[in-house]
Amino acid sequence: MPDRLIEIMPDSEAVARRALGLFEKRAGEAVAARGAFRVLLSGGSTPKRLFQLLATEPARGGIPWESVHLFWGDERSVPPDHKDSNYRMTREALLDTVSPPANQVHRLHGENPNLAAAASDYQRVVARAFKVDADGPPPAFDLVFLGMGTDAHTASLFPGTRALGETRSWFVANEVPQLSTRRLTATYTLLNAARAVVFLAAGADKADPLSKVLAPAGDISTAPSRGIDPAGSLTWVIDKAAAAGIPAGCALGVTEHAG
Hints:
Layout (H helix, E strand, L loop, with lengths): L3 E6 L2 H23 L2 E5 L3 H10 L4 H4 L5 E5 L1 E3 L9 H10 L19 H16 L12 E5 L23 E6 L4 E6 L1 H4 L4 E6 L5 H8 L18 E7 H4 L9 E4 L3
Parallel strand pairs: 1-9, 1-10, 2-3, 2-5, 5-8, 8-9
Antiparallel strand pairs: 4-7, 6-7
Helix pairs in contact: 1-2, 2-4
């Protein structure tokens, strides 16, 4: 079985710095092996700090940006300059400073009033970037970054929503009644094809959802992050506060870092 690991860091800053190290490692390996590094990004405060670190030296000059392709795992139904846009957060934290070529930055179009069409369009964008059939099996991203909400959602796969049962499409429009909104989101079908998935979680409010996600038994309908089981490796990078939720009987290997 591919690696299934939990890495415990002292605090949220150390979580972001460990994520930076994994980004750098995977980028180097992917470019050496396949000539490109294709990464799926997420929103949230910890990824934002990762993006800020990527925009500063030494990472800024050490990443082969000309070979990096950026994609997003979910987006709100807002324009790209809206304060709630995942793309805007990434642009302000990273892309305004350093970026791959513009044609290698592939954002989700949350401003499209027809979100179902936007999801289908994005599936074709991803397929073209990987040079695969949009109606075939999903491609394998070199790295997928995910966060986890206090309700154990990930990407925009929320508890009780229809997207949890999607088995064919790579991206869908997902109705989220508990937030009175709709989102664009990657599905398990795409996420679980990845070569590597890295969850980032920090804070005491993540301990309870983490306990539900990592428990020996549970249901994706109430803890959607449980549905992430990639063909490649799975790594949880969490801080000590979140680690309080690691349940007895957890099957993942655990490593604690001093810094």
